[in-house]
Structure to design on (568 residues):
């Protein structure tokens, strides 16, 4: 049976009805990870032994009638910045290629407790891109490739989760986002990605790039699948002081109409196909949306704040690499010097950025509360070619609205869904962004769109 | 193409080293390297880069140092904008320090 592109719910139904077993599913996806994964540079480690052990346990429990929930027996992968015992956790970077931890990250623990089956540690941009990479080839595993066209990038920094989910190597994966690292690979790989509110998901056991901006979240085939995963991984964790005492339960936010703001210039100066797909997607939802055009985010120094925070926190998080010079071992040449300028950041300037972020949070929340969501094309172009720098990939595309940046600085959630194809038959994405902890509203909107479109069910040419 | 304002230019430069995705998200005009290459880094940027060179004297090529200097220069300009946002003495950083007391 072909399991590769079934949803979590469909796979769960097969397990509950004894049409398949967790061991059969694990074996199937492990084989795909080993066979197709290298063609996409998507996999660091296939965790075969652990997967088969977890699957066997799931089978025993399901046979005994102990049903843990919708993820029970479902295979998955994690970006290789999440600690897992018994396997290396490389952070995509040569200096950490042999690194091991003696415990699992909280997210991995929670997925294990839900009965999910860890099948792979997935590739990523080295150090989650914190040293300033400017090309796809920025990981010791090589450039991540989108299965839609392997001459193009799968996006970063969750390059492996994006490619692996899109190619049907795992039903879902966990990625991380400091500034675009879930939404971008979701758009470039034609899948659904959900960036939760900062603090909703514990970061314990995850590589830190910027403690006050890092978020963990799911990449999957649909908004429903993302919601099922988020429901398991969200919640307070005593090991992560920034985590909040809120879980996530998917309750559809049914409204006659959803008020959606379109930021000024959202679809001008971007690739025409991306713009056309964006407008076509809005048309699909026309009867359910009250669209407000040309809205403008509060004029605040989002970029300066984010740059200062990521520079200072990243330089501190990797001060060992800076001190002993192991940055020189990184793959992308620009990453080998990219951390040093942060040594010139002063403590008062960093604190100034943190102080400015408070009124920034309030201003952006006041702005967002006028809408159910903002809608933008997730990226202004399709995926970059892997053999060119980002700046040379799609020259002349200088427009679009900056939403990913500001919303990451203040930590509010976003979701990206596939909404068509652009040049080179590469996928494009539609994003919704909302107020803090409004994930259910985002999932509702994305689910509504996916109930009326089939882009999320398309299979890439490189599907094995 | 729209011209970059000084503020936008400074923000883009500041982010270059730290967060390439912000650069894409801040697109408002020509690629940021174009004005950057033409501009001479400030004396302060050069001095700060020299301090980093002194800290690690055998680590950098001349090209590396030029890259580091440009990046510092961009960040220094971005810092200006941080100080244009009005704050009062009571506006604290967005984290809360908690006192600790372990088990008795």
């Amino acid at each position: 049976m072909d399991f590769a592109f079934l949803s979590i719910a469909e796979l769960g139904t097969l397990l509950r009805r004894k049409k398949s077993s967790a061991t059969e599913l694990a074996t199937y996806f492990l084989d795909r990870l080993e066979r197709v994964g290298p063609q996409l540079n998507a996999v660091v480690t296939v965790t075969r032994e652990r997967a088969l052990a977890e699957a066997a346990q799931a089978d025993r429990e399901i046979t005994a009638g102990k049903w843990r929930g919708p993820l029970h027996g479902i295979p998955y992968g994690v970006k290789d910045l999440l600690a897992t015992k018994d396997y290396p956790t490389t952070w995509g970077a040569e200096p950490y290629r042999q690194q091991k931890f003696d415990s699992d990250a909280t997210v991995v623990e929670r997925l294990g407790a839900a009965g999910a089956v860890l099948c792979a540690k997935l590739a990523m941009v080295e150090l989650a891109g914190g040293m300033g990479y400017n090309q796809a080839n920025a990981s010791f595993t090589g450039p991540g490739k989108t299965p839609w066209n392997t001459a193009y990038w799968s996006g970063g920094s969750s390059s492996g989760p994006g490619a692996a989910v899109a190619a049907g190597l795992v039903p879902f994966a966990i990625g991380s986002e400091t500034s675009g690292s879930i939404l971008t690979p979701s758009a470039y790989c034609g899948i659904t990605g959900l960036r939760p509110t900062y603090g909703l998901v514990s970061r314990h056991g995850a590589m830190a790039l910027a403690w006050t901006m890092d978020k963990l979240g799911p990449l999957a085939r649909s908004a429903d699948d993302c919601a099922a995963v988020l429901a398991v991984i969200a919640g307070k964790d005593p090991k992560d002081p920034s985590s909040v005492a809120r879980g996530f339960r998917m309750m559809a936010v049914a409204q006659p109409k959803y008020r959606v703001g379109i930021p000024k210039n959202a679809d001008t100066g971007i690739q025409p196909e991306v713009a056309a797909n964006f407008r076509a997607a809005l048309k699909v939802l026309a009867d359910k949306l009250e669209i407000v055009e040309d809205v403008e985010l509060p004029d605040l120094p989002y970029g300066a704040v984010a740059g200062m925070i990521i520079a200072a926190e990243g330089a501190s998080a990797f001060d060992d690499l800076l001190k002993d010079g192991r940055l020189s071992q990184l793959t992308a040449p620009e990453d080998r010097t990219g951390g040093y300028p942060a040594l010139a950041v002063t403590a008062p300037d960093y604190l100034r950025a943190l102080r400015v972020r408070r009124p920034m949070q309030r201003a952006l929340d006041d702005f967002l509360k006028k809408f159910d969501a903002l809608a933008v094309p997730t990226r202004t172009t399709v995926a970059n070619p892997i053999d060119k720098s980002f700046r040379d990939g799609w020259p002349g595309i200088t427009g679009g609205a900056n939403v990913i940046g500001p919303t990451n600085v203040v930590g509010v959630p976003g979701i990206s869904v596939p909404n068509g194809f652009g040049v080179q038959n590469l996928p494009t994405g539609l994003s919704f962004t909302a107020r803090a902890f409004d994930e259910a509203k985002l999932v509702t909107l994305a689910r509504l769109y996916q109930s009326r479109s089939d882009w999320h069910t398309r299979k890439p040419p490189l599907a094995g | 193409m729209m011209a970059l304002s000084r503020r936008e230019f400074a923000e883009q430069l500041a982010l270059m080293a730290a967060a390439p995705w912000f650069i894409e998200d801040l697109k408002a005009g020509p690629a940021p390297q174009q004005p950057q290459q033409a501009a001479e880094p400030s004396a302060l940027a050069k001095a700060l880069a020299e301090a980093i060179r002194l800290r690690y004297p055998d680590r950098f090529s001349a090209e590396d140092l030029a890259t580091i200097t440009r990046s510092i220069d961009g960040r220094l300009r971005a810092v200006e904008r941080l100080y244009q946002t009005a704050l009062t003495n009571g506006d604290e950083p967005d984290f809360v320090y908690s006192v600790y007391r372990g088990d008795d």
Summary: The longest helix of chain A spans residues 347-368.
